[in-house]
Each structure stands twice: as C-alpha cells, then as structure tokens.
Predict the structure.
Amino acid sequence: MADHQEASVTLPSEPASVAAARRYVAEVLGAWGLPDDADTADSVRLIVSELATNAVQHTFGQSPTFTVDILLERGEWLRVGVTDSHPRWPKRLPAAVQQDNGRGMVIIRWLTAEAGGRLSVSPTEDGGKTVWIALPWPAGVPVTSATGR
C-alpha cells in the first residue's frame, strides 16, 4: 500500500457538477477500498455535495470551475478539499426555519465533528480558497492501492 494516494477532478461551476463531484468521490473511495455503504462514505458524499453546492452557488459566477481533491494519508486520514477561485470564505449563515438554504456549513461541521474529523479553510495562490475536511480512515478498512484520476 502506498503511504499517500490522491485523486482530483476539476468541474465547471454549474449545478450538474454537484452530482458529478459526488459520483467521482464515491468511485475513488470505492477504488481505495471503502465500502459504498460505510458511514464514512455516506458522510463524505454529503459533505462533498454541500461543498460543491457552495462552490457553485456562492461564487456568483466569479469561479468558472471548482476542484475536488481527495487524499488518503498512510491509510489513516482521508482529506477532501473543494477549491474555487472566489475570494469570499464560507460563513455560517442564519438558517431560519422556512429558509431553504444556509445550512450547508452547519451540516459539514456537524458531520465532520461526528466522524472525529476537522474542518479548515486555506487560501489559494489565485486569491480563492480550499475548504478541507479531514476524517480518520475507518478502522478495519484495508486500503486498496488504486490510482486516482
């Protein structure tokens, strides 16, 4: 097994790309040995959906693409980052009961914390940002050495 595996995909900032990002991540995690029905797989798919949705909806056309990076470090930590070129960092918006959106970062923070992980945001060289989550790789899940795309 490799000490470090990674995969990445860049997609256009449009609504259809959210499902494409989710499918891509699911395929990579499956290739790396994580069962599709594992709790971690479910959490990561939802987190990627929320982060990709944020990259599409909240960049106001200023980021023509977004990139999803997936890293598995020593079979211990799974890191997933979504990068866009918009300078505004995510904010926790008030989510009124009747409001249809504004809960994405709350969901991401909750799922990440529940899995024993952490969330961070880092700047990119072009003035954008990457929102990262890091989750422990599930105990007992052997890592398959598969090449990312």
The helical segments are 16-31, 39-57, 104-114. The chain has three helices and five strands.
